[in-house]
Amino acid sequence: MKKATALLITVLISLNVFAQDPIKELYQNNWLLGYLKINGEIVGYSFNSEINSVGIGFDTDGTIYWMGAWVCNGITTELLTVDGSSFSTTEFEINSNECNLPETLAFEKAYFEDFFKFDDPGHVFTYTIEYVGNNELEMIITNEDGNQAFYGGKSILGVDDFESNTTLSVFPNPVTNNVNIASEALLQSIRIYDIQGSEVYATQFQPGNPTINTEALKTGVYFLIAESDTGQQLTAKFVKK
Description:
Elements: H1 2-20, H2 22-28, E1 31-38, E2 41-43, E3 55-60, E4 65-70, E5 74-82, E6 86-95, H3 102-115, E7 124-133, E8 136-142, E9 148-154, H4 159-163, E10 168-171, E11 178-183, E12 187-194, E13 199-204, E14 211-213, E15 220-228, E16 233-240
Antiparallel strand pairs: 1-2, 1-3, 1-9, 3-4, 4-5, 5-6, 6-7, 7-8, 8-9, 10-11, 11-14, 12-13, 12-15, 15-16
């Protein structure tokens, strides 16, 4: 009974956090795209040999804010402004993964060009995030033309895991080919997970070589979990360009 009560209190606290801090929700959750609504028409996509997830991720080092969106190729931008209901973009960088299927390129045009207007930076986007139950979130981003992108999100690591991360940092972020790891703790192992919760990399930490090659990772958002010599798990999030 005590365990059930404690669990209920934890859930209620989590609900309160989600309801009151949209910026935390934006950056600490993983957003997979459901569909677009462009000029009133639903625009969807299908998985193929080039597309295994479509989404968006946000990250910050406390001073600079980034956004990355991907289909097969990806785009990243530093955000000029971000608050609890909107963000604005600067110049986008295109990250090519040599994707050439017609259906991939057609959806990337709708997502990158028609919705995010990556070739015309400086636009303002509004967003809403709603808790829909079972730790599931729904986010709707709306551009200046009234077009919308509908996302589902679910925290893999949980709010507390991110808030306790005071001794682990990864840089540069976003990352292109290599990510460096710095920590006050004595690290033993490193694991990296994609936004779907699948482990994509694991190794024993080498103090003399705190760099991980990320060339094999696809464009997107990743979570790095490091375990210290005391068994403590530290987490960090990074965007692969």
